[in-house]
Design a protein that fits this description.
about 0% helix, about 475 residues, mainly beta, about 60% strand, 2 helices, four-stranded mixed β-sheet, Maltoporin, Chain A
Length: about 475
């Protein structure tokens, strides 16, 4: 990876140097940011195996199933990075005209000299780490048909997880992580068939979310999407999650559904991405932290139906080929900040979870003509504003503003078993804006708020051809 900056004044003062782009090359000490080169190598091996068995039996004159299984997963990783940077060797004798050369010529071999540029290595002990993890898990589950209309699927999964990471801090101190978690994770799913086309479901479970190697390692990596550096936190612990939901679903016809769900989630020690306060608010360095607890609750509605009811109105059979679908989710999230001394405001006890949108909208329409093998889908997605990075009492949270996403897919059957697909994703390519809400209006206002960065991810086109033999 290479990073290079050129600069010039937006409003020239009249001097000739203000009208040309000048390379930013450090003096003395190399930098990965300015005229720097970054090399890294990551090797990872994953070995996994599982075994399970299902035993059918009868109880209450109903068919039942008992399942038991286990898995073993072992992962190893080694990571090494080296950083080099060009620097101005001697300010007194340096030929400053070198800095006006273009990137394809500024680092020509003839310019690497005592009165020119030299290359140095930026050594950092945290640029190297080794890691491994071992997961041993087993489960037992019963699938019980209690009555003709009542079914209960329930069981428990036990996981023993060991995670090891060895590295060094920026100052050279040893960092050794060796943690073992034993988790008992029960779950159940109870379904009552109200009619042949309608069900009521109740479900509950315990799950975990464990920190990744990259989130633990003290190594600093550069994220091009956000133009920022991200550093791991060796003090992270895993998150325990309790899940519960209640759902009503109705299937009026083939490929059609109407459902409504209420849900609740409780998080113990959730992991969030925050601005690294030790490096200064404007440093553009991010890291991770555990907060004490959080909870999410809300509802979800899903609708999918065909437009064949319009066939009788317009005396045609064409509308049977159209399917309309939509999904809406509302989420209320709250993070307990009682153990966070640097909350954005002194009286702030709760705030939304980092990365959690208050609502999610998905909808679209699909046309499917099997007689000619043609399918067309139009899709729309939008999420509510969410916290991108958690701030502090000296620096406001950074939010991601909502934007509209439109996609289209066209598929066509060819020959006997072939298919060609054409996709356009993010048709209008709206900018994703990350900002600080200076007037607490809960929306992005260009004239009032501080825009941290804006990203256009681009419209993506893809064409694929498949054939089944």
């Amino acid at each position: 990876m290479r990073r290079m900056y050129y600069y010039k004044n937006i409003t020239p003062s009249g001097s000739e140097s203000d009208t040309v782009f000048t390379a930013y090359v450090p003096v003395g000490a190399p930098s990965s940011t300015y005229a720097g080169r970054f090399y890294s190598a990551l090797n990872e091996d994953l070995y996994a195996g599982y075994l399970e068995a299902a035993i059918p039996f009868n109880l209450f004159k109903q068919k039942q199933t008992f399942k038991i299984g286990g898995t073993e997963q072992f992962k190893t990783r080694s990571f090494d990075a080296r950083v080099f940077g060009y620097v101005i060797n001697n300010v007194g004798t340096f030929d400053w005209s070198y800095l006006t050369l273009s990137q394809d010529s500024i680092f020509d071999q003839s310019n690497i000299a005592n009165n020119g540029l030299v290359i140095k290595e930026l050594k950092n002990p945290s640029n190297l780490y080794t890691a491994s993890s071992n997961l041993t898990a087993g489960y037992a589950m019963l699938d019980n048909n209690l009555t003709k209309n009542l079914r209960l699927v329930w069981g428990v999964r036990v996981e023993n997880y060991n995670q090891i990471l060895n590295s060094k801090s920026y100052g050279g101190d040893d960092i050794k992580i060796d943690t073992t978690y034993l988790d008992v994770l029960p779950s159940f799913n109870l379904t009552y068939a109200v009619t042949e086309k309608a069900n009521i479901r109740a479900a509950g479970s315990r799950t975990v979310a464990r920190p990744e190697f990259r989130e633990l390692a003290p190594f600093t990596f550069y994220d091009f999407n956000t133009n920022a550096a991200v550093i791991g936190n060796p003090a992270l612990v895993r998150t325990n999650i309790t899940n519960a939901d209640l759902r009503y679903e109705w299937y009026p016809g083939y490929g059609q559904i109407l459902s409504a769900t209420v849900f609740y989630k409780h998080f113990q020690n959730p992991i969030e991405q925050i601005i690294d306060l030790s490096s200064g608010a404007g440093s553009r360095i991010y890291t991770y932290q555990n907060v004490l607890s959080a909870q999410n609750y809300g509802f979800e509605a899903e609708l999918r139906f065909k437009l064949n009811m319009l066939d009788s109105v317009f005396k045609t059979e064409q509308f049977d080929r159209f399917t309309v679908f939509t999904n809406f989710t509302y989420i209320k999230s709250e993070v307990n900040l009682s153990n966070v001394a640097t909350a954005v405001t002194d009286d702030e006890k709760y705030r939304p979870m980092q990365g959690q949108s208050p609502y999610i909208i998905n909808c679209g329409i699909q046309y499917q003509n099997d007689s000619i093998g043609l399918g067309i889908s139009l899709l729309y997605n939008k999420i509510g504003r969410r916290i991108f990075l958690v701030g502090s009492n000296g620096y406001r949270n950074i939010y991601e503003a909502p934007r509209d996403l439109f996609d289209i897919q066209i598929s066509k059957k060819i020959f006997k078993n072939g298919e060609i697909k054409f996709n356009i994703n993010d048709i209008f390519n709206q900018m994703s804006v990350f900002y600080q809400d200076q007037n607490d209006s809960k929306k992005y206002e260009e004239d009032e708020d501080t825009r941290i960065t804006g990203i256009k991810f681009g419209t993506n086109y893809s064409l694929s051809l498949s054939y089944k033999f």
